[in-house]
Write a structure and sequence with these properties.
The chain is globular, with a radius of gyration of 21 Å. It is α/β, with parallel strands linked by helices. The chain has helices spanning about 10-20, 55-65, 85-90, 90-105, 135, 140-145, 190-200, 230-245, 260-270, 345-360, 365-375, 395-400; strands at about 5, 40-50, 70-75, 80, 110-120, 120-125, 155-160, 175, 215-220, 230, 250, 255, 275-280, 300-305, 325, 330-335, 340-345.
Length: about 425
């Protein structure tokens, strides 16, 4: 989002779109409630064109209806169009009418609102000072088998990452900031930095805590602003960027409404070979209304569990969720070189992303990673009803495929229990 105003209430229209145009991508049907609806950017629409439609025709179409193209997504044949008259005087009926008209034009494949996506995080106890997840998912045993590889990149599509954090600075590869449109995806929220630490923080370095994939690299991609919100167009572009830059794993700890463009981006990354770990959302329901992209077939949906190995009360659940992972009271990296304790499915997803990084370093494809994580998960309470495969077990997952690391990889020696620094809690600004 390029500093444009966010529309908070296009409820009826967006609910209809999410059902009408994403039904084919649903996982097994679940009971839905509509307490929470998607949000969209005021006056903006996503126009998806047929590949053969020339750029001049695309711009001419927008201008003919009082708008202009303001952002391009070439890999998906998508364009963001801004219509000033809809921004000045919000009118659901007028927006619906314009979208219907545009869909009927030659060369247009689909039209939808530019939806808003937000973090899937809930603040929790600021004084927890240990990373309980590692024992639960048997990470120490997994690290005896593999610590990942330096050629494996985990893309964190989020609010950016604090590049100077002592537990992350040596792990970062080139990323991008789609919010400000530059190559410096610095985190002004904290969410992305926390997620990155759980996935692949520097481990056994005498600082802070560990990460699920100690040797993996981190690709910071900023699509959420300092308030934790971002647009559909930026999220889609971030996914495409990660796939084009060769990320083997993509973490998406964010959620919003269903979208054709978003599903196209997810499929694009999957077809490029990326495994996508996606937070299931924090509404404590089986509803998928604002849980996207997690419900898409090529996203691996992750619910959150507690230290008691039960579903966290805030976590979404249901037949469309693949696995559960630790997501309550998770200690990880934070802004100002700090550490914070945070809860949410946002915290669960990077544990899966990190595990996917370990498996990718063993030579598994995205489809093989998906199957391996499922078949080796522990069948804790809730398996079969709240998620399909169980709670992840890192040791069991990596034990079935043992091979030497690539020549360019120098695994970091592990200690039985990495040192955890004191947790520094910073309140979050959320838009859940």
């Amino acid at each position: 989002m390029k500093q444009r105003t966010v529309l908070l209430h296009m409820l009826c229209l967006l609910a209809m779109l999410s059902v009408t145009y994403t039904a084919s991508a649903f996982k097994p049907p679940v009971a839905q409630t509509l307490e929470k609806q998607p949000e969209a950017v005021l006056g903006e629409m996503i126009l998806i064109f047929k590949p053969e439609t020339p750029p001049a025709n695309r711009q001419a179409l927008a201008k003919a209806h009082g708008g202009e193209l303001v952002e391009h997504i070439p890999a998906l044949n998508g364009e963001v169009a801004f219509f000033p008259h809809l921004a000045r005087q919000p009118d659901q009926a007028a927006a619906h009418s314009l979208m219907s008209t545009l869909r009927q034009q030659p060369g247009v494949r689909h039209v939808e609102p530019n939806l808003v996506y937000t973090t899937t995080t809930t603040p929790n106890d600021p004084y927890v000072s240990s990373q309980w997840a590692w024992s639960t998912i048997q990470a120490y045993r997994a690290w005896d088998t593999t610590q990942g590889a330096a050629n494996i990149k985990i893309a964190i599509i989020d609010s950016g990452i604090q590049s100077s954090h002592p537990d992350l600075d040596a792990k970062l590869v080139r990323g991008y900031d789609f919010v400000d449109g530059d190559a410096a995806p610095e985190d002004g929220n904290g969410h992305g930095t926390h997620v990155a630490g759980s996935a692949a923080a520097e481990t056994n370095n005498g600082t802070g805590g560990a990460g699920t994939c100690p040797a993996c690299r981190i690709m910071p991609i900023r699509v959420l602003d300092d308030a934790g919100s971002g647009t559909l167009s930026d999220v889609a572009e971030g996914i495409v960027f990660a796939a084009d830059q060769g990320a083997q794993v993509i973490n998406l700890s964010l959620g919003g409404g269903g979208s054709v463009l978003l599903e196209m981006a997810v499929d694009y990354a999957w077809d490029k070979g990326a495994f996508l770990a996606c937070a299931a959302g924090n509404d404590g329901t089986t509803s998928i209304t604002t849980a996207y992209p997690a419900p898409y077939n090529n996203c691996f949906a992750v619910a959150a569990t507690t230290s008691a190995d039960t579903r966290a009360r805030f976590s979404n659940y249901g037949a469309w969720v693949e696995v559960a992972a630790p997501g309550a009271s998770i200690v990880s990296t934070w802004l100002a070189d700090g550490y914070a304790t945070v809860s949410g499915t946002s915290m669960a997803a990077p544990h899966v992303a990190g595990l996917a990084g370990l498996l990718s370093s063993q030579g598994l494809s995205n489809a093989q990673i998906r199957e391996r994580i499922c078949t080796t998960a522990d069948p804790i309470a809730g398996t079969g009803s709240e998620w399909t495969c169980g709670r992840i077990n890192a040791a069991a997952a990596v034990a079935e495929t043992v091979q030497a690391p690539p020549p360019n990889t120098a695994p970091t020696p592990m200690t039985p229990a990495p040192t955890i620094g004191p947790a520094v809690y910073v309140p979050l600004v959320l838009n859940d």
